[in-house]
Backbone:
């Protein structure tokens, strides 16, 4: 009879440690364009989805409205994202500017370099397995996160 499996250590700590290592890899490459990894992600979402209301963007990215607002500021200041009036007087839309789309293209090239470095370090099969495991875990935890938000 097999002994029951019991996880050892703190999952939160292990995930944070891995995330720091992965973020450093991506930030080093994407940073060559003047963007942080989080800014690249945000700019990519806006390029794909914009023009979009900030509240919808925050929901899609699964971040709070205040976090989104704070992260939008440097992109707005750099001229990579612009705000314009929305369909009613109380709403705004954000969209990428031409300079923002160019910056995203530049950063996307550096992101690919980082992704290839990660693939080489971990091996493509391990990366695919990691993606599948992360997606599965996110789906399993999503109902709990949705209940907390209610």
Residues:
């Amino acid at each position: 009879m097999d002994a029951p499996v019991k996880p050892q250590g703190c999952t939160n700590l292990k995930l944070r440690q891995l995330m720091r290592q992965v973020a450093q890899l991506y930030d080093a490459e994407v940073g060559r364009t003047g963007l942080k990894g989080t800014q690249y992600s945000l700019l990519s979402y806006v390029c794909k989805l914009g023009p979009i209301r900030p509240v919808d963007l925050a929901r899609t990215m699964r971040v709070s409205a205040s976090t989104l607002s704070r992260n939008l500021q440097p992109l707005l200041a750099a001229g990579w994202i612009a705000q314009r009036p929305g369909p009613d007087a109380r709403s705004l839309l954000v969209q990428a500017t031409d300079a923002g789309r160019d910056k995203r293209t530049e950063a996307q090239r550096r992101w690919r370099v980082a992704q290839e470095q990660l693939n080489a370090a971990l091996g493509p099969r391990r990366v695919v397995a990691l993606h599948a495991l992360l997606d599965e875990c996110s789906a399993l935890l999503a109902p709990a996160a949705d209940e907390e938000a209610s």
About this structure: The chain has one domain: 17-149.
